[in-house]
Amino acid sequence: MNILLWHVHGSWTTAFVQGPHTYLVPVTPGRDPDGLGRARTFPWPASVREVTPEELRETEVDLVLLQRPHELRLAERWLGGRRPGRDVAAVYVEHNAPDGDVPASRHPLADRNDLTLVHVTHFNRLFWDCGTTRTEVIEHGIVDPGHRYTGRLARAAVVVNEPVRRGRHTGTDLLPVLSEAAPLDVFGMRTEGLAAHLGLPEDRCRGADLPQAELHRAMAERRLYLHPVRWTSLGLSLLEAMHLGMPVVALATTEVVEAVPRGAGTLSTRPDVLARAARHYLHEPEAAAETGARARQAALGRYGLKRFLDDWERVMTEARS
User: Fold this and answer.
1) Pairing between strand 48-51 and 116-119?
2) To 10 degrees, what angle do helices 285-302 and 236-244 make?
3) pLDDT tens per residue across span 261-279
4) Could you give the CA distance from residue 259 to residue 46 in angstroms, rounded to a whole number?
5) Chain-centre distance of CA 160, in angstroms?
6) What is the C-alpha to C-alpha distance for residues 196 and 190, in angstroms, rounded to an integer?
7) Residue 41: in which H helix or E strand, if any?
8) Cα–Cα distance between 56 and 37 in angstroms, integer?
């Protein structure tokens, strides 16, 4: 099957393209957000092919995987008038939890009968109003990085993109009090200047943007994984940390309460409870390693790659029937 999809979320796409199909990823001369092409920091297989908008007009496409509302019009234009959901099968994957007036959040693709809307968490499906559009939940799958945890550094790993801009969404305002319990290494895009923004000394809060391969190694060297995010879908970095064998200390919000079972870490809506848990793991490395091992087993059982690909195969087959 030839599947057209845009390079929007590198981590999620890395798992999706491990399937048995050919994946057509648009590329434009400037590699803008609608034409990023193949990932440069994620290991994608040769079955992921770059295609230009001009080439797409003459390319056979069996299914369009949409991830942003404007891709409906974009796909129709680049496919020479073929309409997703009508002339070519289409599935829309919603990566995000709603924003704004959350209890009344209406999905942009609500009340459509020509495509399937796939949520990546049950939390997302619960909170989005999708009307009569057919919905499915396909939970995340992770390409297993292996049990790499050493915890040799008595620091906490935090992974979040743009923590200054996203502020309360990512729990950036909670980092000063949590940094008193454990020094923080914050990995992700645009983390430079974070310590200064928060008024923290560099030894208590450091920022770094690392390629994926280096990121996993760096995370696994930290004693624990800290997830201070208030409002998001479900950070893939949290699931990756669990796969690595890291103990988790996380805000008990959104899908996290389903993803991290008892014994795999500490969940709470109270920052003081999270701070105590971070101190515990910091000073009890054996307990941290044991908790991390349980977190890994839980993640392998629920977020394994095979289940993820099997679920997607079923939904895409049904969309084409």
Assistant:
1) unpaired
2) 120
3) 999 999 999 999 999 999 9
4) 31
5) 10
6) 13
7) none
8) 13
Asked if residues 115 and 90 have their Cβ atoms less than 8 Å apart, the reply is yes
Contact present, 82 and 76 (Cβ < 8 Å): yes
Give 224: exposed, middle or buried? Use CB within 10 Å, 0-12, 13-18, 19+.
buried
Residues 247, 151: Cα–Cα separation, whole Å:
10
Q: Where are the beta strands (DSSP E) in 61-194?
A: 63-66, 89-94, 116-119, 134-137, 153-159, 184-187
Q: Which residues contact 126 (CB under 8 A, 6 or more apart)?
A: none
Asked whether 255 and 262 are in contact (CB, 8 A), the reply is no
Other C-beta atoms lying within 10 Å of the C-beta of residue 259: 26
Burial group, residue 201, by CB count within 10 angstroms (0-12, 13-18, 19+)? exposed
Which residue pairs, CB below 8 angstroms and at least 24 apart, start in 197-205? 197/164, 198/172, 200/175, 200/176, 204/179, 204/180, 205/175, 205/176, 205/179
Q: What's this model's pTM, rounded to 2 decimal places?
A: 0.94
pLDDT by residue (tens digit) across 49-79?
999 999 999 999 999 999 999 999 999 999 9
Return the biggest CA–CA distance within the chain: 62
Single out the residue of 276, 123, 254 nearest to residue 265, CA to CA.
276
